[in-house]
Amino acid sequence: MKALSLLQPWPGAILTFGKRVENRSWSPSYPSRREIERMTGHWIALHASKGCARDYFDEAVESILDVVRPAPGPDRISMLQKLGVYMAVGLRGMHHPEGIWRPLPTMPFGAIVGVALVDGVIRNQGHFAAYAANVTDGDRQREWWMGGFAIVLADVKALDVPIPFKGAQGLFDVPNDIPRGSAVVERVEPRETRAPKIASREVRYQAVMKYHQRILETGSSERSRDEDSRPPVAPEPDLADLGPLED
Prior knowledge:
Blueprint: E1 2-6, H1 10-16, E2 21-23, H2 31-36, E3 43-48, H3 54-68, H4 74-83, E4 85-87, E5 101-103, E6 111-122, H5 125-132, H6 138-144, E7 150-164, E8 171-173, H7 195-218
């Protein structure tokens, strides 16, 4: 089976929010483009890259929000949790100087996260118009399409458990026994040396969620002067980088 690697947070847009056109800047002579054009009807694995630059991560999250457009309040928090991100804020609610968005511990990096059927490719505006006319969410897919070459995906399925795997540029080979959906297969376990780090990130994630809940309930990131007027709230979390983003 072939696999395609995507920078986070784009895998979540495909697996959770209905993105079905995967944009690529591949030239017509690029080997992987020629190969994917012959793969209509074949399964492909979706791989989450190991790293991502901070500024790109911020821009990608904002792009997804522009398309999904969650309502403020609980709907927005739920959407962000499904995508696997949270907003990093500093003292008195100011944005963190190193970027707004951070990955939650649940966001996988360096792993196969799903599978999909290749349903064709888009080469130009005419191809996209023909595709959009034959799907029920053509207008929404137009918002995901960036105007150039794109891979059309169908029957997208998320794996129950991401499978750690080293990615590569373009298309690359993965074992043929990658599950199509929820089938159970033998997988490579994460290195035990990562367990303490993941546990620590989980604790900080809980603190972040309590902090955002306080903002949602009170409309402020600061505590009331009258500490007896409402139940105690969680302290402002440590906003150290929770994810394995790489510059």
